[in-house]
Predict the structure.
Amino acid sequence: METVLPVQYNGNNSVSEKLSPATILDTKLESNLTELRRYVREKLRSGVYRLTTDRRGRSKVWEHFRMVLDEQGNLVGYAGCMYCMDVLRHDPHISGTSSLISHLRTCSAAGVLPAHAMMIPEVHVKEEVLEESRNNEEWDIFTRTTDICAEYVANDMLSYQCLTGNGFRKLAQFMVDCGAMHGKFEVDSVLPSTATVAKRVCARAGEERLKLRAALCPRLLHGSAVTLHTLTADRHSHLIALTVHYVKDCSVGTDFLGVCDFSGDAPTKMKDEVLRFLGKFGFETTPERMTLITSGESPLNAKWKEATMIKSFSYMINQSVNQLLKQDNQTAKEISINLEKFREIIRLINRENMKVSKLLEMDLVNSETDWRDTLKMVERVCRARSELLTVIQEQRLRESLSTESEGQMRHLITLLSPFKTAVEDMECCEVATLHKVVPWLVHLRDTCACSDGDTGALVILKEAMMRTLDQNEDLHLLHKVAVFFNPRMNSLRTISQEDRELVRKEVKRLAQAYIEISEPRRKKAKQESSPLSYLEDEEQHQDEESVAEREILLYTIMKDYTDSDNLLLWWQHNSTMLPLLAAVARKVLAIPASTTPTAHFSKIVRKIKDLGSSWGNEHSIDDLVFLHSRLSRLSANIEVNNKSSSDG
């Protein structure tokens, strides 16, 4: 709302009541214009309507006029003279400022001012005419462009969002610039064919892959992991996205590698395809050195036994919650019925445009497949329950809003909220997360423990949740090793004594393996014997095992928790004291806990699922998706740099 300045006027305060403000704003009948003008003028002079304090535009005439606002601060389509309080109809695309200039020259109230204050030179008048002409021309172009865009969307059945994308706007700006530079030309002479565009996408994707390979090679030396995320899967084919994770300075870097497609469930073919795909980016493709994080049961798990296969934390939790909601007991069945009724309520509100809380304006597309969206829906409906009872008339739906049903759904919120927090925490792509898997599972089990104040329904839910968690928990030894690299938990009291011994042995093995790779054994130079050598102390040979044991012992007695919230930063600060463990920590903490893709990549996933084979073959999909990911990252980096420059 614009800032307004009250108008003082000592003339007649009578106000016509023949027309309402709505009529003023909506009417287009020419016969009413005189009456409308008189109505607005009297409202303005009586102080009911007001003038804005801000100028309408750059024109000199706006030093003497302001736009008129009604009681609510809305523009009514009239400009008011600041001297006589007369009003004139003003539309920048129709009437322009000519009528305002003419009024100013004949305004008697303006005559008391110095001539130079009220007169507008002829040169300015000519400029006003030219500006009006330009405004009218731009309005005509805008109207025609709107029609063409409507036809573009309707003819090709595209989303309206395609008009707001950076790619489309860049193309449109380029075509406008070409027209301004070269004049009118036929669009067919400059627009390439789809085959030409596809070839260029393929070439650009190849160029970007070479750049990414050059950037990744030095980073992969310190350890990396690859996540496999299933985009589409049916009886005949699978489409899997690959993302690499590595340690970059004191954070985890992530780069999207692309998508590979293979038919059937043949594990051997799947393994060979993934290895071939990773080889394009310079990965060490020795199977036993690969660390893969998979979402769900994959044929690779059975065939690729020599590789390190880690199940995604998000997948374990998602499976547990989904199984809970499908339990064969009375409480679970009642919850499922209420969930469906909640969805019906949301659809009814959207369909009937009911005036209720904006919290209920939500998309239900993912609420049936993503339990977190389902939980969000339940939270919002329960929060707006009292308001919904005043607008929902159907008895069947009102039953789901009863006190008993609400209590049951709030039990569901209480139980699942910690699980939602855990998944969101573990899906962060920029920080180390693997060390949190075991502590989060311990905490989630604690929240599922029954207490004295629990109702019968809540006890049933907690017991069922504990069972599904037991069924889906699949911890790898690296999950427990990662806990060891958290200085606040290196005592490993969250795991059993047997697992503690296994973790320490594994840490020692990884440290020795790092020494063998980074520092090959050197033959010791023979020293000449001395007559007094028998009196010297025996040489203490510091082999790899003793070095690793010494660092492990030193680390376990350290009580330095500075910067321990950022483990990668902590290990960087202590790398001079614990060089072997710091190197192993970087390698282990580079492994993400979940396979969830980044936000911009999630949009690609939905697009691929919607369009299916219309993208072309699997190579076309890979090129297109990979190039999109690289361009999106480039645009994001430019925005960050521009923001940093403006802030500085």
Observations:
- Residues 174 and 444 are 55 Å apart (CA to CA).
- Confidence is low (pLDDT under 50) at residues 1-31, 114-126, 521-526.
- Strands lie at 4-5, 50-52, 65-69, 75-81, 87-89, 224-233, 237-248, 251-263, 291-294, 308-311.
- Residues 122-156 form the longest helix (35 residues).
